[in-house]
Amino acid sequence: MSVPEFAIVGHPNKGKSSIVSTLSEDESVTISPVPGTTIDNRHYPMAVDGEILYELIDTPGFQRARAALEWMRSHVGSAVDRASTVRRFVDEHQQDPRFEAEVHLLTPILEGAGILYVVDGSRPFGEDYEAEMEILRWTGQPSMALINMIGDSDYSDDWTKALGQYFRIVRVFDAMKADFDRRVQLLLAFGELREAWRDTLEKAVRILREEQARRRRLATQVIAEMLARMITHVRRRRLEPDVVMDAARDELLDTYKQDLVAMEQRCRDEVEQIYNHRDMERNEPVVQLLDEDLFARQTWVLFGLTRQQLVATGAIGGAAAGSMIDLAVHGTSLLLGSGLGALAGGVSAWLTSDRIANVKVLGHPLGGKEVSIGPMRNINFPYVVLGRALLHQRMIEARTHAYRGPLEVDARPGQLQLADTHARRRFEKLFAKLRKQESYRTDLVTSLAELIEQQLTMSLA
Amino acid sequence: MSHFSLLSDLIDLDGKLEKDSTIDLDSRRQRDRRIGRSLQHDRNQPVAQIRAWLHEITVGDAPKNGPQGARLYHVLCVLLLVAGLLTGWGLASAALYYDGQQPINVVNAVLVLVLPQVLLLLVWLLTALPVRLPLFSQLGASLGFLNPGRLTGQLASLFIKGDDRGLALLWHPDNAAVLTPAARWLFSFWSQLFAFSFNIGLLMCTFFLVSSSDLAFVWSTTLTISDAAFQQLLTVFSAPWSTFLPEGVPSAELVSNSRYYRLDEGTLAGATATPQLAGELGKWWPFLIAAVTGYGLLPRLVTLAFSWYRFRHHLRRALCNLPGAPELLARMNSPLVSTLAAEPEQAFKMSANDGTVKQQAGQYALQCAVIDWAAACADEAAMTGLLAAMGIGVEAFYPAGGRQSTEADAALGRSLCRRSREGIGILVRAWEPPTLEFTDFLSALRRQCGDRKPVIVLLMGDADGVTASDRDTWQLMLSQLRDPDLHVEVIGKTA
In angstroms, rounded to a whole number, what is the distance separating the alpha carbons of residues B234 and B284? Predict the structure, then answer.
């Protein structure tokens, strides 16, 4: 069975490319107010592991429809010959630059593609469309008219009446605002054009729904990972002996903030990529820390041990060495050897630790003072980040690929609230665990992703 | 496969996934799904899938960091083995030192060679308890510094240069979310390896001393404990090996014969020293060997194997949970759904050609025939008024375009030009951009009327007027005709 093909045809600048861009989720389609931008057919196959289920074909707009129709009328014998006359027109004008657009757009139709005729429902109907519609009727191919609402005015009723005379199915479809469900509904409607296409299109829609669910899962996983990373993020810096502590802490705080912003930006980019939005401009205020007084710790390390641990280790080592003396005197020392050894080990570890810490081995200092900042303790912070991420995800999921304006992610306070207290409690439990540095439990991230997905599904329902 | 290559793959995978994130997502999806489809037999084995992916992706470009990291891991294992052997040997030679003067107190030997090990084993057990239990988590963290494996990790960091994290990847803070469990069990494995080889060192040294010298063991206490009670205590202590190694349990006779008093250069409780007795006192060694084996070597073997198993388990888990790995698995195992264009677009970009389209609203003083293109004008009287306000007097409206034939359009052009009007206006809907059919008509009109006769394209808007975008489109399109006497004017307001 041949693959269902659909040629998107119409007058120039009536949103053919917008519809193709939305249905194919391809933002590489040039959408321009200048007519004649599309000069050749472009194919958009819906392929699953290489198997093509259907194909959309974006075509140039009609340029000389009246002249083409006049040629056909002058060459047709009877109504029976209309389709073959169109074919003859195409064959005879293959090399004719005058009818380049008509030849291009009619070729796939004559090869069996269904016709999707696009008009702008926000502008009034005009006589100059009649020749185009008549030519399409002559082809005898199954056809559907799509009323694309480009502007704010609504002339869809007039258009429906006019189009109804030429097309069996007339649908209104807003290429700029159509959400996923509307898109797949339209695809299912294509199946009404020809019985043989229905099963294939239903299969395609099922796969697209699965793909959409998979994308949502992936996006929530990305958001959950970002949240876990942001909540548990800690920045450390080894202090050089001559560095002022306050200056180092301020510098570290700046770096910490930049890290969080970078994590959020990366998450946004990944979510957008998941939904095939790549070259999109995004305007979003950077995340605020809510709490500038982040917990900054100053620690001392040597071989990864704190000073207390090092002293304890020294004391244990000293005790072990001292126990040899106790052993040698058969215990008559009353463990004095162990005790003195522990004392000597502990004290010498304390006294020499600074000097050893500054020693470099193979270019690496063995230890020294270290300042660290994070993790974020503010209990509202994860909700702010989550709210922003959810808003962005919802906007991306709803955004069509025909819309080329910047994405304005400007969350109002009300949009960041989790209305469901049960969900909030579950989120809080997970956030609390993450705050306690149990971040190595990857199942926490998985649970968080599941919870976010539930939240998303609820908000989109 | 061994955990050495698992470790190597983990290090390589981390580097590869990081580099991979710079590649376009579509390319990655295509590539990963192709590899995923060839690995369908491993569909439910994510570790095998990821490793096969890694090997496929690095064919001809074998990464170095992984093998280097695994090599460092090997080197550190060997170092720990040697250190353990030497320490064990050293401790045993100190604890079993005998110069023929004072016999070795078997109680002291057990206290030095076995008891600390049992205590450290208990510490290990506490640190190895599930960290999810809050108390044990704290305890584990507090006691963790005693772990020689952790110090080995710090030591390993010294050998790692530049940005390549290599083996240090396991305890690098960036990957703590995924790799902390693996690092924890790596440190545990290293510490148990040290402890195991320490026991081997102990046993080797003990065997060496037993076989190359005569050792005399005694036991001594100030407490009023009978030989029988002491023997009973030893029997309980020797319970783990008493059934299959009976000679490792000191007999009542041996206990009785080797009780020792240090008074007056030392005397044995049982009898005066004879060569037979000296031989008898040496019979404690099977007990000592069994004690080190039973309370040191074998438990450490178990903890070593357990740590190895847990390390391997967490390495496998980490392979599937490294940042980017779940997405990779999803790409490999989900059908590749593509709706994107199959070929690049061939879009026509029109360049502006300023100066060839004139606009001078309100400055005309012309009597014009007005062509109503495709029935754009709904109310001729109102339109006449609007055009008069622009200085354009309407002689008459003539239909063209739309339902008119192209032949009729051509005839109209010829007729209007012949009558030599001052100018010709063409009324069009501004929102319908000019097609080539319209520009054909304009070109024909210019040919028929000759140069210099003004042709004014009059843009008519809808209720909101003509948009700036529509006006610009018309101007841009008609500028391509390079007609100096072609004008584009907006009727009424611009929206």
Answer: 11
